[in-house]
């Protein structure tokens, strides 16, 4: 009882600690020891099932990844901003006349940007930590020789900071005007606005994850209930099918028995019809006469057999002397037959 009472108190905490597990309150209340085990395990793992030490390593890796992403985002944003400045200058130069100082500034910046891109392609080890075989036998030193004169580069850098600041302020004003159209009164609140918006997005993501977890649990619960209903329905269908099948089989057996009787009677009728067609009145009369003749011959043969048997019995009474006479008689008969045959053959060949 004490275990069940403790389990009841631990059920909400266990369900909250393991949202990804397909568990219900009924499962935990029916297995108090398992509920206690999960309650103890919740102190060593997080909501996703990761161990505390592994969670710390994962958070450290995520922080490092976030730092690298931030560094990449900064460099990528600066690179795209420079490209945008060059493109805008090309558009202005096409539609309007620009000063030679502006042309020199943007040409120097574009040339420096292209050289930096080529150097990065030829030697990516500074960003990726991997060595790459030389391309067409070129090295970063060959490309750096194509840099503009040092004086032009120095003047370009002095002006570039001011131009970048102007561009960045303009983009910040655009972002602020999107979130707060009256940005003129809230210019100093841009960082706080972006931070609050980021927190709001994180809160929405957390809520979405909780809802997805709840949806998954409810889906599992509904599927379990649906499977139970399907089993009940299947058992009902099976019971009804067995009862109906019994009656159906009985009727089918009766039908087959009746059909067999009909077939047997048809066969009997066909046999009688065949006999009737085969044995006509004349054939029956002839068969009767043949039978009478055969019976008379059989009777005569039986009488002859009986006479021969009585004669043979009388001969057996005479003993071995009579048997010797019979053998001698048989030998004489055989010699007579052979000589008669030889005489006939001789007479035929003589003629």
From TrEMBL:
GO biological process, one term: centrosome cycle
Keywords: Coiled coil
Coiled-coil stretches noted in the UniProt entry, renumbered to this chain: 284-311
Pfam families associated with the record: HAUS4
GO cellular component, one term: HAUS complex
GO MF annotation, one: microtubule minus-end binding
Domain of life (superkingdom): Eukaryota
Full protein name: HAUS augmin-like complex, subunit 4
Gene that this sequence comes from: LOC108927181
């Amino acid at each position: 009882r004490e275990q069940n009472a403790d389990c009841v108190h631990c059920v909400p905490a266990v369900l909250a600690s393991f949202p990804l597990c397909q568990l219900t309150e009924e499962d935990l209340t029916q297995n108090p020891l398992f509920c206690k085990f999960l309650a103890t395990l919740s102190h060593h793992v997080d909501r996703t099932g990761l161990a505390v030490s592994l969670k710390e390593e994962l958070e450290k890796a995520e922080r490092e990844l976030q730092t690298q992403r931030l560094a990449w985002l900064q460099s990528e944003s600066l690179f795209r901003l420079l490209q945008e400045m060059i493109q805008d200058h090309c558009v202005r130069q096409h539609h309007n006349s620009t000063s030679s100082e502006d042309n020199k500034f943007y040409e120097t910046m574009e040339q420096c940007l292209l050289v930096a891109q080529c150097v990065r392609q030829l030697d990516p080890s500074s960003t990726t930590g991997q060595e790459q075989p030389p391309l067409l036998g070129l090295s970063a030193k060959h490309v750096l020789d194509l840099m503009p004169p040092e004086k032009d580069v120095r003047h370009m850098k002095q002006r570039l900071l001011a131009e970048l600041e102007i561009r960045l302020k303009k983009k910040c004003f655009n972002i602020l005007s999107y979130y707060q159209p009256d940005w003129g009164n809230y210019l100093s609140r841009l960082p706080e606005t972006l931070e609050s918006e980021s927190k709001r997005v994180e809160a929405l993501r957390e809520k979405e994850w909780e809802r997805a977890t709840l949806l998954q649990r409810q889906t599992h619960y509904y599927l379990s209930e649906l499977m139970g209903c399907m089993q009940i329905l299947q058992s009902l269908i099976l019971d009804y099918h067995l009862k109906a099948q019994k009656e159906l089989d009985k009727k089918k057996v009766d039908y087959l028995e009746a059909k067999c009787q009909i077939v047997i009677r048809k066969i009997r009728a066909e046999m009688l019809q065949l006999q009737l067609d085969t044995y006509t009145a004349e054939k029956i009369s002839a068969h009767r006469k043949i039978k009478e003749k055969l019976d008379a011959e059989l009777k005569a043969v039986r009488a002859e057999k009986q006479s021969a048997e009585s004669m043979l019995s009388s001969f057996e009474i005479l003993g071995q002397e009579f048997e010797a006479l019979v053998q001698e008689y048989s030998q004489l008969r055989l010699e007579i037959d052979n000589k008669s045959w030889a005489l006939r053959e001789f007479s035929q060949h003589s003629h």
